[in-house]
Amino acid sequence: MQRSELANFSLPDTPGVYLFKQGRKVLYVGKATSLRDRVRSYFDDDLIATRGPRIVDMVTKADRVVYEPTPTVLEALVREAALIKKYQPKANVEGKDDKTFLYAVITDEEIPRVLAVRGKDIDFKTKHTNDGQVLKVFYGPFPSGTQLREALRIIRRIFPFFDTPKPVEVKNKSQSAKIEFNRQIGQYPRSFELKEYRRTIRNVALLLSGRGKELRRTLERDMKRAAKEERFEDAASARRALFALDHLQDVSLIKDDARYSNLKTVGKDSNMRIEGYDTAHLSGTSAIGVMTVVEDGALVKKEYRTFRIRGVQKNDDIASLKEILSRRLNHPEWPLPDVVVVDGGRVQKKAAESVLAEAGVKIPVVAVVKDERHRPREVIGARAAGVAEADAVLANAEAHRFSLARHRAARSTALRGSLK
């Protein structure tokens, strides 16, 4: 395929999965936060340096691209795994040991658990793990174990499930105490009724198998049935799950596997330091600015910093950004970043660049533009900065989360002071 042929496929700027095909043969399966931008990246001039000859060969042989949009990146992730399992595309699996991949499994027990297990520890014929656990079903392989674990963490927020190393035996008092402890900290189901829990596992199974549309229909049916039978708490639970599926914020933390596992940035070493900046305020009060740090795709929380905004007119995000970035540069004891990521568009990007230029520092700036639901819509300047869009989005999402957390803490402190 050639870049000029992309116009024939009308790729949307939405999450989803894509398949490079040669005739009917599937050559490669991938997922994307933006199908349009992700597929375009396969036609960059530096593809062989960033992805290797196998992917270049695949793109050369392909004669078309088909795609399947998904409502969220989470669903793109699980759908990708299902399609890799179905088609076993050469460019995805050749030269890789399937046994090193992680699988999501559901145990065949009275109280099923959802676990992440390596292929080498599973007997796929008998559906047993090496330590004797019986499996009801397994999903995968997932090319990135980091992504699978993050996906399970997100799924458990919506559909709480057990993931204890050993089977759950509620008749055992010590185990019951452990369940109760985890219930109190919100890690496992808040209430436990076996019938309801099995419905939860059904929902997890639908999501992990890439059947998001069927899951939504099932939840809608459950909600209407519960409301008709005046089980209003159950109806509300189904409604909350439906809402959560369409308003997931943390899916931005699930990286694109190709860029995450294969990125080799030209001119940079692999330990790239990215600093993300964001501000939070309510009607100009308790204004807080934060800096977060991502190195080599990992959060470095010990190096996060908080800035209380001073002398800025309320709601002036540009002035607040300039202030916190200027104050950050006054700390030569902190290592300088390779890339700065800001929340916003070209205006915020230029504002950050002006601060850096005034300080005589040459650091590229990337801006993450959000849609009306505060999900990443566009990443400006990532390619020029030599950084993966996924890592820029990760830094931005973490800065947003941290700024809100620090702002809530500041407001709480201010409120307590006013009550004295």
Q: Stretches where pLDDT falls below 50 for ≥5 residues?
A: 249-254, 256-270, 414-420
Number of helices: 15
Query: What is the rounded distance between the termini?
Result: 70 Å
Written as H for each helix and E for each strand, in order along the chain, the element string is EEHHHEHHEEEEEHHHHHHEEEEHEHEEHH
Write down how many β-strands occur, each being a DSSP E stretch of 2 or more residues. Answer: 15
Shape: globular
| Whole-angstrom Rg | 24 Å
Main sheet overview: 7 strands, mixed
What does this structure look like?
- The chain is globular and about 65 Å long.
- Helix 9 runs antiparallel to helix 10 and helix 12 runs parallel beside helix 13.
- The chain contains 15 helices and 15 strands.
- By secondary structure, the protein is α+β, with helices and mostly antiparallel strands.
- The chain has 3 domains: 91 residues, GIY-YIG endonuclease; 155 residues, no CATH class; 155 residues, Nucleotidyltransferase, domain 5, CATH 3.30.420.
- The strands form 4 sheets. Strands 9, 10, 11, 12, 13, 14 and 15 form a 7-stranded mixed sheet that branches. The chain has a 3-stranded antiparallel sheet with strand order 2-1-3. The chain has a 3-stranded antiparallel sheet with strand order 5-4-8.
